[in-house]
Amino acid sequence: MGGARATREQIIEAADRLFYRQGYEHTSFAAIAEAVQISRGNFYYHFKTKDDILAAVITARLAERRRMLERWEAEEPTPAGRIRKYIEIPLTNRADVQMYGCPVGTLSTELAKLNHASFAEANSVFTLFRTWLRDQFALLGHESEADALAMHVIAFSQGVATLANAFRDEGFIWREVKQMSDWLTAYE
Amino acid sequence: MGGARATREQIIEAADRLFYRQGYEHTSFAAIAEAVQISRGNFYYHFKTKDDILAAVITARLAERRRMLERWEAEEPTPAGRIRKYIEIPLTNRADVQMYGCPVGTLSTELAKLNHASFAEANSVFTLFRTWLRDQFALLGHESEADALAMHVIAFSQGVATLANAFRDEGFIWREVKQMSDWLTAYE
DNA sequence: GTCTATACAGGGATAGAC
DNA sequence: GTCTATCCCTGTATAGAC
C-alpha cells in the first residue's frame, strides 16, 4: 500500500537529516522514530537493522545527487558552467555547511573511523561527482588531467566545508568560492 | 608520585590515539582502560568523566603542535620553508591520513555534530595553525591578505586529508602537495 | 592508586497483540 | 502496518575493599 511506502520514505528522509546533523552513530532509533512520529516497534517492520537504514539513506543520496547533476546538465549548456555549479555548492548550502559540514565528506569520515561495512558505498557519492567532473573537464579538452582536476575540485570543496564548519565563517566561503571560480577560467 | 603521573599521561596518550582512530564517541572507557592495562575502576581516579579526558587530550594536542611549530622555526630559516612544512603534513603523515584522516579536522567535525561543549576548544588547534601561518605570510610581505592565505592553506590540507581518507590514494596526496608547494612560490 | 562489584541509563533488537 | 512490552548488551559512573 501507499501508506507503507510513505512511512518507509519518511524514515529514510528523517534518518538522512539526522545522520547529517548528529552523525550516524549518535542518531538513535528513538530519535528517528520520534521524528517520523511512529513507535520504535513499528520501525523494525520497515528496517531490520540500523545498517539497513544507512544503506537506504546512501542509496537515496546517490539517487538525489544523480538527479541534481542531470538538472545541471539541463540548465547549464557549457561544461565550465556545470563545474562552476559544483564549486558553488558550499555557498549555495552555506547555512547547513557552517552548521554540519558536507553531508558526503562527514559521513565518509565517520564511517572510516567506525570501520563500517558501508564505507565504500558511502564513498560512491564521491565517485559519482568525481566521474561527472572528470567528464566535464574532458569536454573542455583536458582529457589527460581530467581525473586529477576532478579530485582537485572535490578536495577544494571538502576543505572549504570543513573549515567553514569549524569557524562558522561565511566570508571565508565567499572568498574561496570566488577564488576557485577564477581558477577555473584558466581551463575554459 | 611519578606512578600516578605516568598513568595519567598513558591514559591521555591512549585516548588521543583511540579518539583519532575510532572517533571520540565510539571510543569506550573499556577500550582506553584496556590499552593502558588498568581496570575501569582505576580509570575514574584519574578522570571523572569522558569529557574530562577529551579536554586533556585537546590540551595535550595543542601543546604538541606548539612544540612542532617551534621545531620548524628552529629548522627552517625562511617563512616559506615553514609554510611548506605545513603543506607537506598530509604527505609526512600519509599512512595515518589515509586510514583516519586529519586528527584536528575529524575531531572538529565530530564535535560539531555532537554539539559538544569542547567544540571551541578543539578548534583552538586550528586557530594555532591559522595564527602561525598568518604570521609566516606576513613575514613574506603579504600582511593584508595573510589571514586569508592562512585559511586557504589549512583548507587545502583538510580537503586533501578528507579525500585521501575516502579514496586511500597516496598518488593523489603527492600531486596535491606538489601543486600547493608550487602555488606557494608565487608568494615567496 | 589500584582493584572488584555493582548501579543505572540508553540503545538495538524481538515477540506478539491488535 | 502499527502498537506495547520486554530482553539483552554496552557504556558511563559510583562504592567500597585492599
Structural commentary:
Chains A, B: This is Transcriptional regulator. The structure is a homodimer. By secondary structure, chain A is an all-alpha fold. Chain A has a single domain (about 1-185), classed as Tetracycline Repressor, domain 2. Chain A is built from 11 helices and no strands. In chain A, helix 8 (about 105-115) packs across helix 9 (about 120-140). The longest helix of chain A is centred in the first third of the chain and has 26 residues, at about 50-75. Chain A is elongated, with a radius of gyration of 18 Å. The mean pLDDT of chain A is about 95. Chains A and B meet through helix 8, helix 10 and helix 11 of A and helix 8, helix 10 and helix 11 of B. The structure holds a DNA duplex (18 and 18 nucleotides).
What structural class is derived from the secondary structure elements of chain A?
mainly alpha
Q: Please identify the top-level CATH class of chain A.
A: Mainly Alpha
Domain tally of chain A: 1
| Bulk shape of chain A | elongated
Number of strands of chain A: 0
| pLDDT < 50 runs, ≥5 residues of chain A | none
Biggest interface: chains and residue counts?
A: A-B, 38 and 38 residues
N to C succession of SSEs of chain A: HHHHHHHHHHH
CATH architecture of chain A: Orthogonal Bundle
The largest pleated sheet of chain A is described as:
none
What fraction of the residues of chain A are assigned to beta strands by DSSP?
under 5%
User: What distance separates the N and C termini of chain A?
Assistant: 51 Å
The DSSP helix count of chain A reads: 11
Oligomer: homodimer
Protein name (chains A, B): Transcriptional regulator
InterPro entries (chains A, B): Homeodomain-like_sf, HTH_TetR, Tet_transcr_reg_TetR-rel_C_sf, YxaF_TetR_C
Domain HTH tetR-type (chains A, B): 5-65
Keywords (chains A, B): DNA-binding, Transcription, Transcription regulation
